[in-house]
Amino acid sequence: MNSNEIEIHKELKKYFGFSQFKGLQEQVITSILDGKNTFVIMPTGGGKSLCYQLPALIQEGTAIVVSPLIALMKNQVDAIRSLSSENGIAHVLNSSLTKTEIAQVKKDITSGLTKLLYVAPESLTKEEYVAFLQSVPISFVAIDEAHCISEWGHDFRPEYRNLRNIIKQLGKVPIIGLTATATPKVQEDILKNLDMADANTFKASFNRPNLYYEVRTKTKNIESDIIRFIKQHKGKSGIIYCLSRKKVESIAEVLQVNGISAVPYHAGLDAKTRAKHQDMFLMEDVDVVVATIAFGMGIDKPDVRFVIHHDIPKSLESYYQETGRAGRDGGEGHCLAYYSYKDVEKLEKFMSGKPVAEQEIGFALLQEVVAYAETSMSRRKFLLHYFGEEFDSETGEGADMDDNVRNPKHKVEAKDQVVKLLEIVRDTKHIYKSKEIVFTLIGRINAVIKAHKTDTQPYFGSGSDHDEKYWMALLRQVLVTGLLSKDIETYGVIKITKEGLDFIKKPVSFMMSEDHEYTEADDETIVTGGKSSGTADEVLTGMLRELRKKVAKKLGVPPFVVFQDPSIEDMALKYPITIQELYNIHGVGEGKAKKYGSEFVALISRYVEDNDIIRPDDLVVKSTGVNSANKLYIIQNIDRKLPLSDIASAKGLTMDALIKEMEQIVYSGTKLNIKYWLDDILDDDQQEEIHDYFMESESDKIEDALKEFDGDYDIDELRLMRIKFISEVAN
């Protein structure tokens, strides 16, 4: 080591207590100490902040650190103050300070005490601050979270765009840009915007070999699935990300009710609660935090063992950053995402109100997430390719750490199809994105294709022997192998590369694996509360139906009055053997369980014993009674004979939603007397006619009743009569 190197190692030990630098830290620090513009791309957990903290502490003058998050600045300032006896060594300058505090900050800077000054980009635009900073020695300006500069970054902030002009006013000071995530396009954007094309660029590998990536279909039973997953990782720390605050609250409640220590975290909670929940997680008083993405910025918990995405994120950058909070200590980290195309459509709808350019970017970023979820190639290879890094899925570190590699899909030879695909990209002259290329292959016309007259070309429809899904899967795999490239500048137009042109001339074997099918079962089958995670025991289903028939006959009512079909199927899936467990069966509440349950649980209990069945105890997910407040309100106000329309509007429900709630109440065994409301709509004869129909009918399906009465009654009248019937006859 030369004397300079010895010097910085000494300082590292003195301030931070480390004897060794991590990864690229030393090279970055040397570049900064040499007064060079420096650009650092280093994944979360790679020790980014030390790269500017150490040189700031060593050098003359004050370093300015621009950061977008007040909470993050505060954490860092506290951390640096803990390294020194002087409180003034680091300060924050933002809108939350009083006049007196601002005066103190200026005094400490002027006296040369302050080494690091954290500012929000907005503060830097204030003339008085700029004038003050011009009068004191500045060592360098560090811009943290630099991807905020690029609208292609996942966290674009317009105020970041103007930073370069402000820094220029401070004289000739070196700039250090740092980001934990950046695709090649974002990197180029940052360098261009900060006007530092000459910067020394340091890029650490984005590969986190200890993380296991998995994507599962999102079904109605996602809650049971998450609970089962957490119980398999008992006592370990984890984060669950949801897109909405409401979902955060409800998932946290479900987990608590099911014996998992969990707390919610989102920006809607007051600062005190947020800080308390964050501390509980850090101090391991709770195992799981359920959060919106507001959580985790600057969370330095090294032993997060799993990160679950309840909802798919808006970009692969976000996904990478959020999953990157797992396994920072190098130990195991399981990254599980739930995917359904419905969620993607929701996000697209959400974007439709934005300016066109922003929409285009949003769609392009979202399509990458879709491609990642649906692909059946190595997820690690796919992810690293997105960040501009090559990965060898045979020999690379962590190569077997994802669901696709461990459970590979069947591969087929696609050499000829690759040639066909490449020729179409070449012959349509690089004007199309993925969708139009696939449409050209299968021969489907849309406005863009019509405008370019592609539908009149001889090659239009030349790939119609395969479907859209096949071509989309092939296109993604060809992109990752580098025969095609996607031009992000033009929102994802596909271009052929030199390698692609060579492939057309001299094709070689290309083994493709088909995409995953993430089809959601339709609502009817999932209503059973567990269909997706197992199938009902058919022998037991038959026995339970027989018993239901017997009980119904004895009581002189149709079988559906005792228990509906979904309830019977759910019993045959979860094997409840006590009345208590029966409460948790789909569509069975306390009232119904007590009234009819004893014979059913006795039968199931015998069956379980005779057949040595291991009961899936974790399948009995206790519900939180989230809607219980609504239900209570409905029951009380129907007792008071309040008009149903008033009850609905008081709770912000549509009539349809109110009837749904009422159906759940009566099907779970609680009485609702709505005769007062029905008397205004239907006369006694009409009510009797519908009552008799349900009494004689084999099924309680509304479609059957509509057919039977052929337009005499509308759907709401029949649903309300069914509620009255079940309430009187069953409860």
Automatic annotation (TrEMBL):
Q: What is its EC number?
A: 5.6.2.4
Q: Which reaction does it catalyse?
A: Couples ATP hydrolysis with the unwinding of duplex DNA by translocating in the 3'-5' direction
Pfam families documented for this protein: DEAD, Helicase_C, HRDC, RecQ-1-like_HTH, RecQ_Zn_bind, RQC
Keyword Signal included in the entry's annotation? no
Q: Which residues form the Helicase ATP-binding domain?
A: 29-200
Q: What class of enzyme is it?
A: isomerase
Q: Which biological processes are named by the entry's GO terms?
A: DNA recombination; DNA repair; DNA replication; SOS response
Q: Which family does it belong to?
A: Belongs to the helicase family. RecQ subfamily.
List the protein's name. DNA helicase RecQ
This chain's source organism reads Flavobacterium anhuiense
